[in-house]
Write a structure and sequence with these properties.
The model has no long low-confidence stretch (mean pLDDT 91). The strands form 2 sheets. Strands 3, 4, 6, 7, 10 and 11 form a 6-stranded antiparallel sheet that branches. Strands 2-1-9-8-5 form a 5-stranded mixed sheet, with no helix packed on it. It folds into 2 domains: 7-88, Sandwich (ATP Synthase, domain 1); 92-133. The chain is of the alpha+beta class. 26% of the residues lie in helices and 43% in strands. It is elongated and about 55 Å long. The chain starts with 6 loop residues before the first strand and ends with a strand. It is built from 2 helices and 11 strands. The longest helix is centred in the last third of the chain and has 21 residues, at 113-133. Produces ATP from ADP in the presence of a proton gradient across the membrane. It is found in: Cell membrane. F-type ATPases have 2 components, CF(1) - the catalytic core - and CF(0) - the membrane proton channel. CF(1) has five subunits: alpha(3), beta(3), gamma(1), delta(1), epsilon(1). CF(0) has three main subunits: a, b and c.
Length: 140
Amino acid sequence: MEGKVKIDLKVITPNRVVFSDKVERFSVPSVTGEITILPKHISLFTPTVEGELRIVREGEVQFLSVGKGILEVGNNQASFLIEDAFHSAEINEQEVLAAKENAEKILKEKPKGEDLVSARAVFRRSLIDLKVARRKKRTL
């Protein structure tokens, strides 16, 4: 992979730098669908949604569960500023399953207002976290 053009990607939350390295490409969940960013991509500034971030680096694919955020791309650099992010290995599947089941239980009670919004958010995020947790790093 030596000599191949790469893009510098930084994934940053309020608490930590989750990822920082040169990559071949990455795909983020945006408000209009998934966006794949390659080296030398045109300048871009876009909001993103909760979902799965896929990073291809040195022929391997890494998966992260990410919250809402902003992606900025320019000059062969990308900064992904997000609420939170977790590598697949950081996700505790048992805790996520418990949160999902609790959210399902609350949703069956047909809550209203903030309770409904909160339960839906926990349920949605738990589905994303489970998907990412079950993925393993793989080689292309």
